[in-house]
Structure formats: C-alpha cells, structure tokens
C-alpha cells in the first residue's frame, strides 16, 4: 500500500468521530475536502474548535448555549408556569416549530437507558427537580420520545414529580408509537401537544 | 424557534461541506460532537487545519503528499517502465492492495467530464504526457473507472499517448461495466490488471 501522508491519515481517522462515518466514508470525505473544498474544510476546522470551546449548557434548562442562561430561559414573555421535558435540543426545536407551546423547557440530553449504563444522574434529574420545584411551575409536560426508553424515562420522571405534588402531563399519543420526535411532522406534534393528558 | 448560539449554527453550517451531509445530518453531527465527543471534535478541528495546510500534490504523480515527491514515486525498487493512470488516490490504493502492480502511478484527480466543464487541463494531461515521455516509461496502463466518463477519459488519453509512440494498455474487462474501482473487490481488480489488453 502507498504510504500517504501522516496528516491525511490523521484527518481520515479524526473524521470517524462523526456519527455514521466509517473508514470508507472518512476516506472519501478527506479526499473530497482536499480536492474540492479546502476553504470549507478550514472553516469547519475553525468552527469545530470555536464551538467546542464556547458552547456549554444552560444553567436552567440544560440546552446548548454560549451564555449562562439561554435565550429561551431568559425570555420574559414565555409562560414560566409550564415546563416541557425533552430528550435533546433537536426535539426542543421540533416542538418550537409547532408554535403550540410557549412555556419553558428542560433538556435531558439523553434518556434513561440501563443497558447503556445511563441512569437518573446522567440525565440531570436532580436539576430537573430543582427547576420544577421553583414555585413558578404549575405543570410539567413530558415530551420524551415514544420509544420504550423514552416512555420509561417519562414514567420515571412523572412518578418522581407527582410524588412532589406537581401536575404532570404527557404528549398525546398522536405521535406514532416507536417514532422519534425529530422525524415526525410538525402537525402531528402540534396535535400531540394540544391533546396532552394527565398521568 | 429557539435561537441557538452562533458558534453552534456556524458549526452546523460548516459541517455541510462534507459530501452527503444535509441540514439534518449536520445538526445531528453537531449535537453528537457537543454532547458525546468534544475531544474527538477538537482533534478533528486540528486535523482539518493541519491537513489543509500541509497536504499538496506530488510533483511527479500528482497524488496527495506532504513532500515534493511522494513515497511511491521516490521508491527506487518500483518498476519505472510501467505507468498506471488512475482517477483518484482511492483507486490507487485499491490497485496497490491487489499486489499485482509494481510500477509507478499518475493520479488524474478527476476525469474528463464536458458536462461539468472538466477538460484535459483540469486533469493535468500535460503533466501526464511529460511524465509518460520521460524515456523510462515503456507502457502506460489506463486504470480509469469503467463508467462512461472514465472510458472516454481512457480513450482520449490512449489516443494522445499512442500518437506520441507510447505503448498503451487498459485494465481487462474483468471489472464490471458501470462499476467504480473503489468499490470492486481486490480479486476482480487483480484479474483485470493481469488481463490488461493493448488498445
């Protein structure tokens, strides 16, 4: 085999940190960038460094932000009596796009998954309790995915919050069972948001 | 929609320079890196910057290298009387893996494609002629892909080199018509290399 340059090998290996990119895709990406888009690659390099240094988690809702408190949490026009719990920032964006929810969020950044060793601590449940029990929140809407892990997470969180006297609801089952929020159309999510039921 | 941080938006947009990555994949990649692999992302950022600055083209064979002359071209044990013309470094690697070819290479970094505005100048044919007419080369093996564009490229190069009195051969048609070298198994490429025919 021809010995290619070490920085090309390093790049090919480094590209494999991207989800769904194997050795062959990584090689194609490296060649593509070197041959056709060196400027884009330079920009991507800088963007990666900048984002990793600057992006952290919102102190209140745990989503990605560059400040202490994200723009959603610091928006005084939003309804602080409603708190919607989602798994990921992508789920949060999908719900925002439906325009049916004007409350606050808490982003778990994951879901309970005992098989993967992900427990209550890993999805920041102590911070969720702190947030939900701040006196302003009247209702917690559970909007985790309708997968088995998402349902288990919703059940766990629901029981935990109800034990603390909070009112808890769940997105209506307009969302197809087994589906993930990120891939459902906004109309379906809108119905599910409007039909949410007490648990 | 929640306003996410500008460096996250910048990263998502920058990831789209990768081949086959659309808005949704870019978003997933950005979230994945921020949540699960910040070290890998930092390394990728550095690898991109390093590779784009350091990798250039070999003066002789035109493949990617960090030096003036690549390791294959500067290997005195290789047969300088044979010159194999390929479209990409990935094709070159596939041929090397068959262990049936010990000559030199010329990497076009593309193929003739009039519809995309890619002409003889873009695939460095003047440098190929210079290389092939250096006195040492006795036979040029055309190993462009067996697609219509690759075949046209091989025909064009073949006529050009034969007009200069060089002996030209083509990989045997063991390679499936319409197939691309990069995805063919090494055994098929090995047969094609052994059965190459004069044109």
Q: What this model shows, in words?
A:
The structure is a homodimer of 199-residue chains. By secondary structure, chain A is α/β, with parallel strands linked by helices. Chain A is 42% helix and 14% strand. In chain A, the strands form two sheets. Chain A has a five-stranded mixed β-sheet with strand order 4-3-5-6-7. In chain A, helix 1 (6-15) crosses helix 2, helix 2 crosses helix 3 and helix 4 packs across helix 7. The mean pLDDT of chain A is 89. Chains A and B meet through helix 1, helix 2, helix 3, strand 2 and helix 4 of A and helix 1, helix 2, helix 3, strand 2 and helix 4 of B.
Quick structural summary:
Chain A has 7 helices and 7 strands; from the N terminus they run αααβββαβαβαβαβ. Chain A is of the alpha/beta class and 199 residues long. Chains A and B meet through helix 1, helix 2, helix 3, strand 2 and helix 4 of A and helix 1, helix 2, helix 3, strand 2 and helix 4 of B.
């Amino acid at each position: 085999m021809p010995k290619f340059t070490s920085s090309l090998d390093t790049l090919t290996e480094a590209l494999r940190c991207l989800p769904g990119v194997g050795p062959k895709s990584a090689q194609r990406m490296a060649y593509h960038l070197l041959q056709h888009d060196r400027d884009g690659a330079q920009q991507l390099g800088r963007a990666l460094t900048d984002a990793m240094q600057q992006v952290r988690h919102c102190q209140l809702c745990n989503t990605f932000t560059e400040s202490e408190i994200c723009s959603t949490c610091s928006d005084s026009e939003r309804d602080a009596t409603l708190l919607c719990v989602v798994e990921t920032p992508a789920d949060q964006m999908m719900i925002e796009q439906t325009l049916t929810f004007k409350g606050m969020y808490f982003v778990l950044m994951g879901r309970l998954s005992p098989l993967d060793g992900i427990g209550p601590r890993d999805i920041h449940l102590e911070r969720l309790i702190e947030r939900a029990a701040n006196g302003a929140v009247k209702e917690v809407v559970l909007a985790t995915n309708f997968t088995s892990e998402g349902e288990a997470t919703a059940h766990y969180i629901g029981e935990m919050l109800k034990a603390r006297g909070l009112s808890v609801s769940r997105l209506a089952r307009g969302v197809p069972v087994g589906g993930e929020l990120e891939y459902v159309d906004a109309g379906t999510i809108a119905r599910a948001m409007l039909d949410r039921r007490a648990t």
